[in-house]
Design a protein that fits this description.
- It catalyses: N-terminal N(alpha)-acetyl-L-cysteinyl-L-aspartyl-[protein] + H2O = N-terminal L-aspartyl-[protein] + N-acetyl-L-cysteine.
- By secondary structure, the chain is an alpha+beta fold.
- The protein has a single domain, classed as Cathepsin B, Chain A (Alpha-Beta Complex), CATH 3.90.70.
- Helices cover 29% and strands 21% of the residues.
- Strands 1, 2, 3, 4, 5, 6, 7 and 8 form an 8-stranded antiparallel sheet that branches.
- A hairpin with a 5-residue loop joins strand 3 (135-141) and strand 4 (147-148).
- The longest helix is centred in the first third of the chain and has 12 residues, at 43-54.
- The chain is globular and about 50 Å long.
- It starts with 5 loop residues before the first helix and ends with a strand.
Length: 235
């Protein structure tokens, strides 16, 4: 830890993993990210802005928001599937959750390439990180922002831009950590990669409370299985 950046040390010390003295970690990779706090339901746009700025695009959240509105991907700040947004926009309503496949379309508008990946194995994310990418990941966010299992009812976006390898256990990645930033905290987080993988893989439907809210235009079947579940975006 002596050679780790200060913010990585603080993130690790704040995490629950700091209490287990039997575990030793190596900082495999880390790309510093300037945090941006979200205003309203803009978790995907804020995560995307942080990723773009890491690639020296120097894009403001408002610029991405305006471009997304121009393309009819959003009204309030969420990101949507193109076809359903056109239908939603015509009805002056909007949809609850942001969809991974819209992010590459937005990136193209700023001359940046993004690719949607299936997250079938825990190591799929590591492979992308080690190739030089940073990754936007949808997951269920608990009250402390760590991954939880709420079937998509607490869906949120974060940006993974670092990786801590646990050295003393089996090579199963069970105790490995990812370093993350998201729009609800200015602090770097250290989350269990396995917990994040499991949270991402159970994003199946929208909070029932959202389904009866007239302010939201929801997917016809209220399913996230084809839009967020087992997906992440590499930039």
């Amino acid at each position: 830890m002596e050679t780790w950046p200060e913010e990585v040390v603080r993130a690790f010390n704040r995490s629950k993993f700091n209490r287990d003295e039997t575990k030793k970690y190596e900082l495999v990779l880390y790309k510093p990210i300037e945090p941006i706090l979200q205003e309203g339901p803009q978790c995907g746009i804020v995560a995307l802005a942080m990723a773009m700025n890491n690639h020296s695009c120097n894009v403001k959240v408002q610029s991405i928001f305006e471009k997304a509105k121009e393309l009819l991907y959003t009204i309030q700040g969420e990101l949507f599937d193109g076809k359903e947004v056109l239908e939603s926009y015509a009805n002056y309503s909007y949809r609850f959750t942001c969809l991974a496949r819209v992010i590459p379309h937005l990136c193209e508008q700023f001359n940046l390439t993004a690719t949607v990946h299936q997250w079938a194995k825990v190591t799929d994310l590591v492979d992308c990180l080690q190739s030089g990418c940073i990754c936007l990941v949808p997951y269920d966010s608990d009250a402390n922002h760590e991954p939880c299992l709420k079937k998509g009812h607490r869906a949120h976006w974060l940006l993974v831009h670092g990786y801590l390898k646990e050295l003393t256990s089996s090579p199963s990645n069970e105790y490995d950590l990812v370093l993350v930033q998201h729009g609800k905290s200015k602090f770097l987080g250290a989350f269990s990669m396995l917990d994040l993988f499991q949270s991402n893989g159970q994003l199946v439907d929208i909070d029932p409370k959202r389904r009866i809210d007239s302010e939201y235009c929801l997917p016809k079947d209220a399913s996230l299985k084809e839009t967020l579940c087992n997906l992440f975006v590499a930039i």
